[in-house]
Amino acid sequence: MGDYMSIIPAAVLRNLADKLYEKRKNAALEVEWIVKQLAVAGEHEKINAVIHMLNVDFTYSPQANHRKGGLIGLAAVTVGLTKEAAQYLEQIVPPVLNSFLDQDSRVRYYACEALYNIAKVVRGDSIIFFNKIFDALCKLSADSDANVQSAAHLLDRLVKDIVTEGDQFSIEEFIPLLRERMNVLNPFVRQFLVGWITVLDSVPEIDMLGFLPEFLDGLFNMLSDSSHEIRQQADSALSEFLQEIKNSPNVDYGRMVEILVQRASSTDEFTRLTSITWINEFVRLGGDQLVPYYADILAAILPCISDKEEKIKIVSRETNEALRAIHADPSEGFDIGAILFIVKRQLASEWEATRVEALHWIATLLVRHRAEVVISYLNDIIDPLLRAFSDPSDEVVLLVLEVHASIARDTTHFRRLVGLLLRNFQSNHLLLEKRGALIIRRLCVLLDAEHVYREFSASLEGEDDLDFASIMVQALNVILLTSSELSELRALLKKSLVHPAGKDLFISLYSSWCHSSVATISLCLLAQAYHHTNFVIQSLGEEDINEKFFIQLDKLIRLVETPVFAYLRLQLLEPGKFIWLLRALYGLLMLLPQQSATFKILQTRLKTVPSYALNSEQLKRALSGNPYSQILQIADEINKNHDGGNMYSAINFPSRMQQFQNMQQRHRMHMKMKLQSRHSTSSTLSQELRRSEGFSRPSPVQDISRPSSGSSWSTAGTS
Q: What segments bear the compositional bias annotation Polar residues (predicted)?
């Protein structure tokens, strides 16, 4: 240290290391005056010697007071050098920056003070150390000592002023440093970072918007901070950036969309709302730039449509509608497969609103890109679309029917749809019971009722599962007789005997309606083929009349009393003209148990048939004896006097009768085989049970290990 005595007096050096701040301060003023004189004299070597001495003997000293003196001394040197200080910064600044890591909080405090005084002198020339200064300030903002934090804040404000007033700042070099620290959780560091982002964004010469994707995720991460102040600061910064995006012609939407999509699934409501709001603006502003990201955006907004927060739901719906309104083409990067993949996944969502919108998207794609969807992706989405028939929401079921109807516009896919529906109904009887009527009625509206019923009939005619075929035909028959959507179909069937189109439809349905005797009777009554109805009724055997038959017959008799069969009841006013109708109804009456409610309903109706319409001789006979047995004889005689051949010439009813009998015989054989199988299984189980009981419960007087000569399981006994 003696070599420096000629430059700086020993007393000054002693005071510079004194424990009292005032002595160190006065010594620093002496150093400042000495350096100023050296600078005026151009003694650069001596100035370097002084700086070197302060670094080696003071700032890197193991003694804390020496380190404090070294820091204030370096600041004094800078002040003394004034305009010439810039050329010595490489020697002055690094030791100060190193002191920010000192274990002694007072040393860290004086390091902030020293760098503050240095920066005030050199201003923009300190920018070359900006990244290191920023890194140090970032750490000091979370310092455990409140005084150090305060000193760091003062230094931070000065550095911000220096950056904003000059043009030497390099945003390109700064951004990687910022990005590294954006995910720090410390609240003081977060405030520090948001403050810098806001300041830099306010400088017109600095394009922070261009680098927004680098730190956008960090800002969104701060929206869920536990500190209200930090959330507010982050939101304010994001709002400012969003406004800039709206006013900027050149924005990199792609990278930011990826961040927003991830943040839209955040558990924090405020983060979700902000991200969805940004996505909403992007969809409106981005246009063609967003086409490659449509699937990602859709993956974010569809779940949010069902968010528990009302604001999020509203913005998500608006975004979804805006996105769907944009017409994009695969040639522009629109990925139909990616969209359908997202939609398919959302069809399994637990939320109804999300499932509904997913179906709207499929419907939209079918309208705009039907060929691509049907040819390339139908097999991928058909299973979830079929499962949607079992959805608990009626709205979902109605929408999925529209989608299926859109797919089934051509014959091939229409037949495939009917086949898949039948297999679905076959494997899930509950679906047929709960939703069958809704599905079939809606399909009749969307795809033409006659077309739908003809295809169902054609598919069921050769159905091997006879039990299912019978159940399905019964369901179709009830829908046919009760649904307002099928009124035109019923009107056409009423003309079966006089109109070619009615005849073709009757024959088409008859082939599968034969799976159910009551359905066949219903169809014949609807077609006014009363003569044939009688033959069907007369052909029923003992095995045909069972509990299921009575259940179906009960439904039919009650339907006769509805407006659908009003024409039939009016025809009873002319029993002479419609004697076969009268006979058919009496035939049904004779099949019903007399104590049943249905018997009384039909009996009451038949009692209202006017007797004046019959001729006097017939009337006498009808009124004498048993009226029900007499009326059948009268019907036979009237039939002989009326030539009904022309009425039935259009349809080959003998052939239809043979068709019905053949089908019913198949059902009888099927039922017989089922009964035999049950008896066989029951017998086997009984034998096994008896053997099991024989071994498990032996007689107390018989040793099962030594069977008697008369035992049924001895060799002699079995032979």
A: 678-687
CB atoms within 10 A of CB 495: 16
Domain-terminating residue out of 284, 305, 334 = 334
Distance, in Å, from the CA atom of 477 to the CA atom of 516, rounded to the nearest integer, reads 10
Q: Answer yes or no: are the C-beta atoms of 594 and 628 closer than 8 Å.
A: no
Clarify whether residues 156 and 262 are in a common domain. Answer: no
Q: Does a structural domain hold residue 116?
A: yes
Question: In sequence order, what are the residues at sequence separation of 6 or more whose Cβ sits closer than 8 angstroms to the Cβ of residue 22?
Answer: none
pLDDT at residue 385, as a whole number: 94
What's the helix, strand, coil split of the chain in %, to 5? Answer: 80, 0, 20
**Pick from 161-170, 397-406, 583-592: least confident:** 161-170
What percentage of the chain carries pLDDT values higher than 70? 89
Residue range(s) defining the domain that contains residue 23 = 1-169
Q: Which residue has the tokens 């189109």?
A: 501
Per this entry, what is the length of the chain? 719
Same domain, 26 and 134: yes
Handedness of CA 262, 264, 266, 268 (dihedral sign): positive
- Cα of 58 vs its chain's centroid, Å: 67
Q: What is the pLDDT of residue 443?
A: 95
| Domain at 312, CATH number | 1.25.10
Which residues lie below 8 Å from residue 478, measured CB to CB, with a gap of 6+?
A: 437, 555
Contact 402, 389 (CB under 8 A): no
Residue where a domain stops, chosen among 598, 614, 630: 614
The pLDDT tens digits for 612-623 are 655 545 544 443
H/E/C letters for each residue in 48-62? HHHHHHHHHHHHCCC
> Residues 102-143: pLDDT tens digits?
999 999 999 999 999 999 999 999 999 999 999 999 999 999
